Automatic annotation (TrEMBL):
InterPro entries: HTH_LacI, LacI/GalR-like_sensor, Lambda_DNA-bd_dom_sf, Peripla_BP_I. SUPFAM superfamilies: lambda repressor-like DNA-binding domains, Periplasmic binding protein-like I. Keywords: DNA-binding, Repressor, Transcription, Transcription regulation. Gene3D superfamilies: 3.40.50.2300, lambda repressor-like DNA-binding domains. Residues 1-55 form the HTH lacI-type domain. This is LacI family DNA-binding transcriptional regulator. The lineage of its organism: Bacteria, Bacillati, Actinomycetota, Actinomycetes, Micrococcales.
Length: 343
């Protein structure tokens, strides 16, 4: 600032008034122009940290994540948060800690030193999370996770609604004998999607049949391994816990000479584009709204969007319709080619 003052032939106080755009400053147009010219010539930028110390705040928002920066589809949380922060004149400070507790402590400490407006604390899959103690020193919003005590605002996917939507995609095509391949892992996704499945069946007047509920590892092998038991129950449609499970189901059906959706309609969950859009036929699924989770987290942090009484904002999981769901064949009958295998 002293260098700018010398170049412009004014005092340091005058430079400060111009830089901070004080409306009541009595500075002539010529002096103001000389200051702006010197700033451009010297490449001067105000010391943001010093300004933060004076104002007691900053235009930074912290984002601490466990692994979402290295998880392609969940990285949309960062994208959504970044776009929303820009809209309101803020910049994200991002720390991807990969489970390193020391890195987490140092990242949070750095963010607090920079007097961030607040911190988003996010996980790559929806789960309960322990809030690091230092975050209690600032505003914090959990994204894609929640505190079991319910004492911190959280933005999470609407798992129940998502399960209901997935099941309704099949019900609308006349399917009545609908199976669900759920995960073996206790989680909000396991419980919420199953509850949504049951609610959709009940609303459609279809009796819940426990024999149509299968638990499998939440990956391609899990979907493949359950095929024989699934087909024995004679469903016409199936809702898979995620797109990787659906991919394994596709493999098992193909080996048995069965067609999708003619023999079995399939709905996934997550909308992992690299999987869902490139299966044959492309997979109808329900999207996890990662981009909107990040954006909503910023809105809640800034007070642009209010959290309800329980402090939990649920973001809808939208349907993504492709080609793996067709009309039911018969009234919930066993698919016409069940049991056939390629020779």
């Amino acid at each position: 600032m002293r260098e700018v003052a010398e170049a412009a032939g004014v005092s340091v106080a005058t430079v400060s008034l111009v830089v901070n755009n004080k409306p009541d400053a009595r500075i002539g147009a010529d002096a103001r122009q000389r200051v702006h010219d010197a700033i451009r010539a010297l490449g001067y930028r105000p010391n943001a940290l010093a300004k933060n110390l004076v104002s007691g705040g900053s235009r930074f928002i912290g984002l601490v994540t466990d692994a979402i920066a290295t998880t392609p589809f969940a990285g949309q949380i960062i994208h959504g948060a970044q776009d929303e922060a820009w809209k309101h004149g803020y910049i994200l400070l991002i720390a991807n800690i990969e489970g390193n507790e020391e890195a987490e402590r140092e990242a949070i400490s750095m963010m607090l030193e920079h007097q961030v407006r607040g911190v988003l604390y996010s996980t790559w899959y929806h789960r309960a999370a322990a809030v690091p103690a230092p975050l209690r020193e600032t505003d914090v919003v959990l994204v894609n996770c929640y505190s079991p005590a319910g004492d911190v605002r959280a933005v999470v996917p609407a798992e129940v609604q998502g399960g209901r939507t997935a099941t309704e995609l099949l019900l609308r095509e006349g399917h009545r004998r609908i199976a669900i391949i759920n995960t073996t892992t206790p989680s909000p996704a396991h419980d919420g999607r199953l509850r949504g499945y049951r609610e959709a069946l009940e609303a459609a007047g279809v009796a819940y049949d426990p024999a149509l509920v299968f638990n499998a590892q939440p990956d391609q092998s899990g979907g493949y391994d359950v095929v024989e038991h699934l087909l024995a129950q004679g469903p016409t449609g199936v809702f898979c816990h995620n797109d990787r499970v659906a991919m394994g189901l596709y493999d098992g059906l193909r080996e048995r000479g069965l067609s999708i959706p003619e023999d079995l309609a399939v709905v996934g969950f997550d909308n992992q584009e690299v999987i869902a859009a490139h299966l044959r036929p492309p997979l109808t699924t329900v999207a996890l709204p990662h981009y909107e989770l990040g954006a909503a987290g910023v809105r809640v942090l800034l007070g642009v969007e209010d959290a309800p009484g329980d402090g939990r904002v649920e973001v809808a999981c939208p349907a993504v319709v492709r080609s793996s769901v067709g009309p039911a064949q018969g009234k919930g009958a066993v698919p016409r080619a069940v049991g056939l295998r390629r020779s």
